[in-house]
Amino acid sequence: MNRSPFTRPAAVLALCAAALAGPCYGKEPMLGIAIHGGAGPLPRAEMTSEAEARYRADLGVALDTGYDVLAHGGSSLDAVVAAVRALEDSPLFNAGRGAVFTHDGINELDASIMDGATLKAGAVAGLRHVRNPIELARLVMDKSPHVMMIGDGAEEFALEQGVTLVPRDYFYTEQRWQQLEKARRGDARAAATLHYFGTVGAVAVDAKGNLAAATSTGGMTDKKFGRVGDSPIIGAGTYANNATCAISATGHGEYFIRAVVGHDISALMEYRGMTLAAATRLVVQDKLVHLGGEGGVIAIDRQGDIALEFNSEGMFRGARTSAGRRDIAIYR
After folding, report:
1. pLDDT of residue 41
2. pLDDT in the model for residue 19
3. pLDDT score of 28
4. Is 127 helix (H, G, I), strand (E, B) or coil?
5. CB-based contacts of 221: which residues, under 8 Å, 6+ apart?
6. Distance, CA of 218 to CA of 99 (rounded, Å)
């Protein structure tokens, strides 16, 4: 007599194991990636059509670069690094090549990455000679027993890992220098919009259902005293956990640190059973606003659901999935 395979203990165990290992039942896994180039961009009235086209083009390059990694069987970690690296190489965004200047006329770069499968993470801060900080953050995670390295020590580690350092003038762009000059002169109107060009990030889910998040920034124009924001802080600007979601944040970093935004969204999902959309909405539109914080997050879960939540006028953002979605947007 033929017995149903569902009555056989070995088969039942195998099915249970497969269900736990994969993101869905009997379906092709959903691939997905979301990116951001900073929340609170220039007011719509000050954004020319030519500038908007350039932003959209570079966002598209980063989005498709990261998605192509997933589509060819790559990991979510590789995908977020590829996407963020593309944004770091663009002079339009405040990370890598387009980093803003400190009060002393120096570019100081921060970045972090987190693996949702293992909860391993790597972060760097205060870099001055590393072209792609997100790559060094990945090396800190993969090649050291530490989570965060800063300044000269981080760059010494970079040299040990074979990273070629670049001269400081690699990061110079005339637009960023003029922003610093306006801030130094006390231009009130300029000061009100200077923080709009902050931070890049990516989150992704791969074919194995593993999540990853990465964030990179040049900090704040005219910052002093070695200030560091939320971007390299695990649990604040970056967080990933396969049990819940992957998150990259952008905005006024002090508030995101105080609200522990990344981990708070994950905790709401894990302990209160909230959906990704509900958790991101509560933290960004309620908790952050109550504190006085402006900005947003991109987030993704293992099912490929994506949340792009912000409380500012806009957020440079994009999303793409294997279900055919491909969106790029700046304003609401």
Report:
1. 65
2. 42
3. 76
4. strand
5. 100, 101, 176, 179, 180, 183, 194, 195, 197
6. 4
E strands, the chain, in order: 32-39, 109-115, 121-127, 148-150, 200-205, 211-217, 238-240, 246-251, 295-300, 306-310, 314-321, 326-331
Are 213 and 238 within 8 A, CB to CB?
Answer: yes
Q: What's the token pair of residue 124? A: 């760097």
User: Would you say 277 and 307 are in contact if contact means Cβ atoms under 8 Å apart?
Assistant: yes
244 noted as active-site residue: no
Residue type, 298: I
User: Which one-letter amino acid corresponds to residue 28?
Assistant: E
Q: Which of 65, 102, 199, 280 is catalytic?
A: 199
Strand-by-strand arrangement of the 121-127 sheet: 148-150, 121-127, 109-115, 211-217, 200-205, 32-39, 314-321, 326-331
Single-letter amino acid code for the residue at 255 = Y
Reported CATH class of domain 25-321: alpha beta
The residue among 135, 57, 116 whose CA lies nearest residue 91 is 57
Q: Domain-by-domain residue ranges, the chain?
A: 25-321
pTM of the model: 0.90
